[in-house]
Amino acid sequence: MKDHLCKLTLRIALVLFAGTMFYNTSAQWVRKKNAIKSRSELAQTVVYNSKIYCFMGFDSSRNTIPSSEVYDPSTDTWKSLASIPSSASMTHQGTLLIDNTVWHIGGRLGKNPGPLTSAIWIYNISTNTWSRGPDVIDPATGKTLPIAGSGVVLLGRVIHIFGGFTPTACTNDQDKYHLTLDVDTWLANRSLPAQWKNNLKPMPLKRNHVSGVVLGGKIYAFGGQLDHDCGSATEITYCHVYNPSTNSWAKLPSLPSARSHAEGSTFAVDGKIYMVGGQGSNGGSTDKVAIFDPAGNYGAGKWVENTTLTLPYVNEGLSATILGSKFIIHHGGRGTSKYPQKATYSRTVTRMPVYKLGFPSECLSFTTTTGKVVKGNTWLFTIDGSKSYTTSSNAKWLTVNKNASGTATQNAVDIGITVNASGLSPGTYTGTITATGISGGTTYSSATLCVKLTIQSSTFSVTNIKATSGRTYALSTLRIDTTVYTDRTYQVTHVPSNLNGALFIKTPNADKYNSSSQLLSFSINQPAIVYIAYDPRGTTLPSWLSGWQKFAGTVGINDPKIDHMNLYYKEYVAGVVTLGGNLQSPAAGALDNYFVIFVPVANTSLQRAVYVVSKDNTLERNTTKQITSDERVSFNVFPNPNNGGKIFIKGANFLRHDTINVLMKDMYGNTIKSVIMKTDDKGMLNNSIEINNVIPKGSYVIKAISGTGIIQQKLIIN
């Protein structure tokens, strides 16, 4: 009996203890004053001057609510804000604080499931008024782009939109767009269409209702949902981070459990990212608070569910943030968005703010030649709060040309860098930009950015020539009568004008049967077009030559069995180049080894060859003449700027009947279009490229590669 009473007492104690634990977990949330209206499916939380702004949302019938309200935690009071026009009332939008305005980007209109919109509406906090902003535009078509459920963040002064669905919700989750808009460019002239771009890497896994946050100069994308309106929506655990310095996404550790509908309750504080509540698997809401530490797991990142912060009830589409030591949640759908709430809760949390300024960890690198001035940009951010700063440089050639001083925030500030190579000799230089907090207040640790500068010689060079075969490869100059092999006496009999006098590597013909994937390597100190002179008897090229362009001209040689070598070319940046063997699989038929020719890339008007060109466009020996300025190659692209319709191209003083490969490249070096054109019997070029508004707005390079060499011109599409 005594043992039975002891066991019963123990059981009661355990029950009471467990109940006390549960009670303490939820009871630490203190009920505050109710909001004015019940709302669910809120967009990102907006905090301005320590007040929390809450916009629109769904009512219990899943109609959008035109009204909005603001909460002042210091007085525990809610106040109504001006309503947006009823026809524009939305949910599923991206919400961003920009200066003293709140941008509402895209979304869904009216009663759920309403149509998507491309509209942007701007709420002015100072005047309590709404105004129409720009539309979201598809840069490829120039047409408006209805989009909703996206990740939307502000990095520096640039809006980023990724994920979401367009133009409708079901089966239209997208990974085609990573849209950006420079806010200041639009603000400078609001009468013009917004200059949206789509030239950054899209989020790797398409999804909607993704939570987007900026922390440490990077963009984080957490969770989300697939197939929103299809009747079988699926929440996911995937997480990614975007690094703007490298234009790349990386996969992060997955969420502890699948989650979406937490856009308004995901925020960064104390160097970590909180994801509060949301919709979990099978459409059920969660009361869990998950915290991501980017520095956890030795820098790989780590998720933890903090059970001491468990919400008072399961909640999705709520708003959450931490202000000072107060963790505040409000609104949301209790169990589902069909049951919107007006409850406000608060609890005290222990803060560990990270007061530091930061630059991206990657060094900023520049490559140029003596005397040139080049520019670049980076970001300066805080981890918590905002801080006035100033910048300094430890190198005379390195200065900050934009936002040398100002206020850094969690969303970062754009920093412009200028490098002046005047008076610098060829070589490698390293400088440091330092950002230091000023104006008193909380002390922030300073930040440093390393800047690497490579000054190339104005003279093109090929060095470090190495061959795995052990045979002799030697640098020489390509001219008529020059021998092309180090172990044969075959000589050049004719050469295209742009290759006359070019550096080239003589190769041993004894390596003609080499089939390795890495035979020859060398270093070039400037970007260059590398030409391979290859045996025309080859019926199949080696795999390393796949993707190279065939050149219209040939190099003549006096081999008794063949009279020329075909030419293939490819553009390389400065650095190490590695080539395979002459007969690397699947090559077949070639009986002479290749040799390698170099033409450095020119950025200015090219000069025609100083040799007279014969009727067959080859150079005849000993017939030189000086070239006047009127005989330099000209190349013109117009209209420039271009409205996205047709690009006209005119040129003069090319080789007659020459094949011109015209490439359109974006600013990352990606080829957007490649068109083959022909010159007439006077060496004139008169042609056009149709782009039909399918090329995104932005800056491009139109490059012409011909028998005369390479020439390029910058093109703006607006």
Considering DSSP H and I runs of 4 or more, what fraction of the residues is helical?
under 10%
Overall pLDDT metric: 88
Number of helices: 2
Query: How many β-strand runs?
Result: 57
* N- to C-terminal distance: 90 Å
- Report the biggest beta sheet as strand number plus sense, adding barrel if it closes: 7 strands, antiparallel
Beta-strand share of residues: 35-45%
What does this structure look like?
This protein is mostly beta strands. The chain has 2 helices and 57 strands. The strands form 16 sheets. A 7-stranded antiparallel sheet has the order 40-42-48-44-46-45-41, with no helix packed on it. It has a 5-stranded mixed sheet with strand order 31-38-37-33-35, with no helix packed on it. A hairpin with a 7-residue loop joins strand 51 (634-638) and strand 52. The model is unreliable at 4-25 and 603-631 (pLDDT under 50).
Topology of this protein?
Layout: H1 2-27, E1 30-31, E2 46-48, E3 51-55, E4 68-72, E5 77-81, E6 90-91, E7 94-98, E8 101-105, E9 108-109, E10 119-124, E11 129-135, E12 151-155, E13 158-162, E14 178-182, H2 183-188, E15 211-215, E16 218-222, E17 225-226, E18 234-235, E19 239-243, E20 248-252, E21 266-269, E22 272-276, E23 289-293, E24 302-305, E25 315-316, E26 319-323, E27 326-330, E28 333-334, E29 344-348, E30 357-358, E31 364-369, E32 373-382, E33 387-393, E34 398-402, E35 405-408, E36 413-420, E37 427-437, E38 447-456, E39 462-467, E40 474-477, E41 492-494, E42 503-506, E43 520-524, E44 528-534, E45 549-557, E46 564-572, E47 575-579, E48 595-600, E49 611-613, E50 619-624, E51 634-638, E52 646-652, E53 659-666, E54 671-678, E55 685-690, E56 698-706, E57 709-717
Parallel strand pairs: 31-38
Antiparallel strand pairs: 1-29, 2-3, 3-4, 4-5, 6-9, 7-8, 8-10, 10-11, 12-13, 13-14, 15-16, 16-19, 17-18, 19-20, 21-22, 22-23, 23-24, 25-28, 26-27, 27-29, 30-32, 32-36, 33-35, 33-37, 34-36, 37-38, 39-43, 40-42, 41-45, 42-48, 43-47, 44-46, 44-48, 45-46, 49-50, 51-52, 52-55, 53-54, 53-56, 56-57
